[in-house]
Amino acid sequence: MASITIRNLDDDLKTRLRVRAAEHRRSMEEEVRIILRDTVDGRRAVPRDLAKFTRECFAPLGGVELELPPRGPMREPPEFS
Prior knowledge:
Blueprint: H1 11-23, H2 28-41, H3 50-58
Helix pairs in contact: 1-2
């Protein structure tokens, strides 16, 4: 396997890379390998499913039962003159 060194990397970019790696539960080095591999192969990242992500984050906390208010008839819309 070959190795490369990247010099003069912006601090902000390194921070964002560290955060992205943590979100994917990978090391920064592994995250960079995957980004490079996908970019060179022409693949694009799959958009994150926000609903699935939210469920995964909050499922361990348990559910909440909400009382729904009774539904009544719709009110009349206001008249404009």
